[in-house]
């Protein structure tokens, strides 16, 4: 298939482009590079031995998008582009709604004008809020998000569902990612956060490489086995392969399909620290700090729907995730710089 990957230079996008190219698809990437570096796509090309056509385009730039989409006849759009920093979204809600929501509205308008009515959207487990059931199935109702970023995901999901209802020619796949970590096993591409990492794994790898003195563990008084927060960490390569499988749903004219992309296993912060230390032989000093605002105790999925319907299942375990995250960080201590 011919695929438009918005935000394809970013962390999840770049890993997905590898898997798409290796599965024989033609991929064109657009990205405004607000949170990424074009070098990621050069590294993708080194891995796949196939160039990645790239256009520096903002999804809010309707004219450029229209020109691109009328030149290329895309079969499907995989829509990764968006701002994703939870804390920043609380400080800059207007910018987040504008970028993520207005951007998506412009994108889908252009896609339909150009006859591409297939979209796979990067959603998030955050749409479940504090989940009413654990493990979380796709039937679990959406909940109250604790920040504007989360609301953008929830609202975009609803927009896409409404759009498909009004025009059943659309096929919409909503992929609810749990906690993607790790990197491609080549060590050529990986997560490259700006400034102080918000998320657990990039913080751990920066402690391991000596950039930060110790990890702050946000709370050890949750109702979990060791008191620290439990999440469903998923290897980014497994997640990327989930997109290749999701194309099947599009080809089968799914209408709207929603899948959790997760492993189904919950690990605590201290489980991750211990696995990282064990597999990499590096000590991660840490200290316990107060809970972080907006965090929930436990979040892990039931991922059987994706297995049954699109034949996707995570292959990699927590040790693989820790090993590959460290391989990327130690080979690229300053990311793509
Ligand atoms: P990322 O920041 O690495 O990638 C997003 C890309 O979108 C970046 O390259 C950025 O430059 C680009 N972008 C942002 N706004 C744009 C715009 N207006 N026009 C064009 N390009 C734009 O983030 P990621 O971790 O790869 O996440 C990809 C998607 O998955 C995002 O939508 C994110 O919200 C979602 N998601 C991520 C996680 C996670 O933990 N990483 C979890 C759930 C969902
Ligand atoms: N944590 C720490 N110290 C840190 C960072 C995180 O103890 O320095 C803890 C958190 O308190 C939490 C766990 O590690 O218990 C995971 O935190 P992350 O920030 O890595 O991930 P979250 O589950 O908070 O959120 C991530 C993304 C969201 C996305 C969500 C579900 O940031 O955008 O996963 O996909 F919505």
Keywords, separated by commas or semicolons:
337 residues, alpha/beta, 7-stranded parallel beta sheet, 3-stranded mixed beta sheet, 11 helices, binds nicotinamide-adenine-dinucleotide, binds uridine-5'-diphosphate-4-deoxy-4-fluoro-alpha-D-galactose
Helix-and-strand structural type: alpha/beta
User: Low-confidence segments, ≥5 residues, pLDDT <50?
Assistant: none
**Mean pLDDT rating:** 97
Number of helices: 11
Based on CA inertia axes, which overall geometry fits?
A: globular
What's the total count of β strands?
14
Strands in their spatial order, largest beta sheet? 3-2-1-4-5-6-11
Radius of gyration: 19 Å
Strand content: 15-25%
N-C termini distance: 33 Å
Quick recap of the structure?
This protein has 337 residues and is an alpha/beta fold. The protein is built from eleven helices and 14 strands. Helix 5 runs parallel beside helix 6 (148-166).
Please describe the topology of this protein.
Blueprint: E1 2-6, H1 11-22, E2 26-31, H2 39-48, E3 54-56, H3 62-71, E4 76-79, H4 86-91, H5 93-113, E5 118-124, H6 148-166, E6 171-177, E7 179-181, H7 200-208, E8 215-218, E9 230-231, E10 233-235, H8 236-251, E11 256-261, E12 267-268, H9 269-280, E13 286-289, E14 298-299, H10 304-310, H11 318-331
Parallel strand pairs: 1-2, 1-4, 2-3, 4-5, 5-6, 6-11, 7-10, 8-13, 9-14
Antiparallel strand pairs: 9-12
Helix pairs in contact: 1-2, 1-8, 3-5, 5-6, 7-11, 9-11
The protein binds nicotinamide-adenine-dinucleotide and uridine-5'-diphosphate-4-deoxy-4-fluoro-alpha-D-galactose.
Uridine-5'-diphosphate-4-deoxy-4-fluoro-alpha-D-galactose binds next to helix 7 and strand 8.
